[in-house]
């Protein structure tokens, strides 16, 4: 059955997986990242997650509330974890110096695999998508990944808002 599922997977899904693997691997190296890039990926993954929930289970209020609740709980948990001392924000250039991390890869693949599994089940047993326990479980999983992505970005935004712009202060002192 697994071989049949893999064989019937459209080629574009494998291309998307390769692109996501590349994106995830790029996060494992030390890098300098702009505020814009810190913001784009979590928003894109949130959209992918919400699309996955909506396309599989529809716009049922309980499903979307479950997605939102799981996202909010995981957001609160991840947001409460302090950033590593190796992360620095440079206010003048509005960039972050980040150490490499495998966490983004795990989150990216988590959303991808969730969408893949739900798609495979939809193709082989569509009735399961309408079972409440199944749809609530997977919408919560989608929401949890979204909450983690957003909280990681929000921790960077918080660091940026708390970092004084020393170049502006130095310019003011010279005046």
Automatic annotation (TrEMBL):
Looking up InterPro entries in the UniProt record yields: DUF6622
Give one Pfam hit by family name: DUF6622
Source domain of life is Bacteria
Membrane-crossing segments per the record? 12-28, 40-57, 63-81, 102-122, 134-151
Query: Which keywords, in A-to-Z order, does the entry hold?
Result: Membrane, Transmembrane, Transmembrane helix
Establish whether keyword Transmembrane helix is in the entry: yes
The molecule here is called Tat pathway signal sequence
